[in-house]
Design goal:
single chain, about 100 residues, mainly alpha, 2 domains
Length: about 100
């Protein structure tokens, strides 16, 4: 059920991005379609996430899922990675 709220937020941002791209391009003297609606949706998503505290229902389910599959420094030691999977080997350098 929680995935529905995330999908609705993404849909809203996509529609708002398309609308803003259609309004901003002519205002700048550009052809319609010169500014990508996808890029506007990404920028809107960044703004929404940074300006507003999103409710828990819109946050990722767990950070351990990311940690188990990433190659970042946070996953190189077993104590830093909260996932149940073993940490990456110590001989492998983190990016």
């Amino acid at each position: 059920m929680n995935a529905i709220w995330g999908f609705l937020l993404a849909l809203f941002l996509a529609l708002a991005g398309e609308y803003l791209a259609g309004v901003i391009a002519p205002a700048l003297g550009l052809q319609k379609g010169a500014i990508s609606g996808i890029m506007m949706a990404i920028l809107l998503g960044i703004l929404v996430n940074n300006l507003f505290k999103l409710p828990e229902v819109l946050r990722p389910a767990s950070s351990s899922a990311w940690c188990a599959s990433c190659a970042s420094a946070s996953c190189c030691s077993a104590s830093a990675c909260p996932s149940s999977r073993p940490a990456r080997s110590a001989s492998r350098r983190c990016r």
